[in-house]
Every structure is written in C-alpha cells, then in structure tokens.
Specification:
The chain is of the alpha/beta class. It is built from 19 helices and 13 strands. It is 40% helix and 14% strand.
Length: 420
Amino acid sequence: MENSFLIAFANMLPADSLPLPPSDNTLRLLDGIRVLDLTTSIAGPYASLLLADLGASVVKVERPGRGDDCRAWGPPFLDGESLWFLSVNRNKQSVTLDYAQSAGLEALHALVKVADVIIVNQVARSQKKLGIDHATLKAINPTLIHVSITGFGLSGASADQPCYDLIAEGYSGVMDMTGEADQDPQKVGTPAADLLSGADAALATLAALVDRNRTGNGHAIDVAMVESMTRFMTPRIIPYLGSGELLRRSGGKDSVIAIYQTFHTADDPITLGLGNDNIWARFCEAVGRPDMANDPRCADNIGRRAAREEIVREIQSILIKEPRAHWLALFRQARIPAGPINRIDQVVTDPTLTERGLFYAAQRDGFSVPQVGLGIRFDDNSQTFRKAPPRLGEDTRAVFASWLDWDEVKIQQLGSAGLL
C-alpha cells in the first residue's frame, strides 16, 4: 500500500495539486453574444478566449482531421493534447467543417447569418478566396462584426506576408531592447505579440458591440500583430522621437527611473523600483543609509540618474550582505516596490497569486487540465470556467442543432460528404 502511494505521488503532475474551478456564478457579461472563431495558433484563440470568459458563446470552426495548428504544438502534451492548445481554448465548442468546399461554405455562411462576431486570421487574399472576407460576409449579415488578425494588416505592401509572434517581436524593436548589451537580441519569454494582438482584437470587438447596440451597424476590425507589438513599445519609441537618443538593450538597466532594475542578494536576485523621491527616502532609511537620502545630488530623479552608476554600486554592496527573504520582508514593511524573480514553478505557488484563485485545473476524462484564469474581477467575481478545452469536433452536431435548428439528417449529409 505504501509503495503504491509513493508511486502515485511520484507520478503526480503540478496540475494535480490545483483547485477545481467554481461551477456557479460565472461571468455572463456577454451572454447571448455568438462568436465564430476560424483562427488557429495563439492570437485569434486568445481573443476568443477572452470573449468566452466574459460569457460569449464561442464556436471554434476547425479543419476536419487536423484542427487548429496549435493542437500539434508539442511536446509537452497532456492526454494527447498540446498544452499550448489547452492554454487558450476553454469555454469553447469545437465544430469541424471543410468550408473550402462549396457545401461546407454554405454551412459556414448559415452560421454567419446568426452570429454576432467572426474572427479570422487569414491574410486578405486568402479571406476573399475562401469566402470569409468582410465584404462577402457583410452581404449575408449586415450587423456582423468581422475581426481580422494578421501579421501586417489587410492593407499595405506586406499585407499578404505570413507572420508569427517571433517575426512581430523582431519588427517591433522589443527584441533589440531585450537582453544584455553584449549578447544577441532576445525574444520575450512568452508569445507577447500573439497575446497583445489577441487582447487588442477582444477590446476592439467589445467597442464594436457597444457601437452596434447604439447604431445597429456592423464593423470590420483590422488588427496587425506587428502594430500591436510596436504600440507595446510606445514608452521607448516616443522618447527616441522626441530626443533623438537611441537606446539599445542593456539587461534592463536603462530605465528613465534612476533605480529600477535587478540586484543580487546573498542568495537570489530581486527587483527594486524606487520610482519617486518619497520611495527613495524610505529605501535609504530602511537599509540604514539616511545619508544617501540627504545627499543633495540625489534629491530628485534627475540627480539620481546622473549619479546612477555610483548609487547602483552602493545599493549592490548593501543588498549582497543579506538573503532575498530578509530584504523582501524589510521592503514590504517599508512599502518599497520590490519582488522576487520567480521561476514558473514559483509563480504557480506564489500566495499573492494563488489566494485570488488565478490558477485552477479543469477535469476532463480523468486528467487535470491546468488553466490560468481571467484575472479580472467584476463586482469581486472573476469566475469564468464553464467548459474544458474541446476535443476536435466534439460539438459539431450540437452547434448545428442549437444555432441553426438543423435535424440529424441534414447534419449527416455534411458528414457523408466528408465535410465534418
């Protein structure tokens, strides 16, 4: 018995220790809104995930037999499914439909007629060829909100060029600003351009829905990953345009705030941000160096920036004497912005995050499917979970029956034609 317990414990995954999601009182702010998601990979599915979490009914239309490209992205896999796919597809229904064929396109257009929103990630040329471009679908449903997420947008010389997150990060300048000065440029450690453009698409959809409720008009939304990622760089771009000062990567040690970087302690590194004069004074008092606060050269951020190298050396000589836990406890008491540099395994067990229920595991076929919650509260409610990420095509019949009131015979005709 003891050996069996030890074996079972050893085989546990981190997800197995996560709490189950609450099953009631989920957010319903977009209840009644129907979304067709024709996208693959991360950006589009992340946009529809946000809408689904807010209560929209999201139908994920996928290719028969293959589905979303992201389903194959691995390892790692869980229960035969890519964990990347599982990260952005909860609360959705999966329909398989080959709309490259005329009968399949007719079925898709029938769904479009009763939808509120459609999200696509094909370039303009492909959209038109497939019959899913805005002009075609507006003729079917004039109030439809058509959301396009592409690498470079629907117009311009690069409109037909393919793009991934990596490409957009390189274009935006973020890679040139990330990493140490004497090392290669670095990609951000998460698909930042995908997530930013997906969030932009969701935000734009909400604005379009508000306007449609007021005017009755549909909209064509054009989100370019390169532009979303470049806008993310606004606090770097504007200072260059206004000053001519070109900053390059520096290991995060070039902030406009004089002391805003990582420091070593006796064991693990910490982050420290002394963003105003009061925080600077509290820091100096907390570390037993009121003389630094009283130094007229360091009275304001301009002075501290001029003396940054000297101040950084002095702070480093202080912090290296005690372990991270000592300094974080001291700074917390003194209300000084500081924190650990967590690994992923430390992030998912951090009390600050876990006590608000950000991480949970959905149960599907005996497996714990880990999820990161919405992290936005409405009236102190951030519960969003209604459905585990779907198996490929598991909801095909249910969607055609509920959205279009099609009977089994009509659905089976599509299946017999190899379109489902």
